[in-house]
Amino acid sequence: MYILYDIGGTNMRLAALKDLQTFGEAVHIKTPQNFDEAMKQFSQTALKLADGEKIFGVAGGVPGALNHDKNSLYHSPNLTGWDGKPFQKVLSHALGGAKIFMENDTDMIGLGEAAFGAGKGRNIVVYMTVSTGVGGSRIVNGKIDPAFWGQEPGQQIIDPSDRLYDPGTLENYVSGGGVERIYGKPAYEITDAAVWDELAKWLAYGLHNSIVHWSPEIIILGGSMMTKQPGISLDAVRGHLRKIMKIFPELPELTLVGLGDEGGFYGSMQYLQVKRDAGEIA
Question: Which of 61, 140, 245, 250 would staple 108 via disulfide (CB 3.0–4.6 Å)?
Answer without folding.
Answer: 61
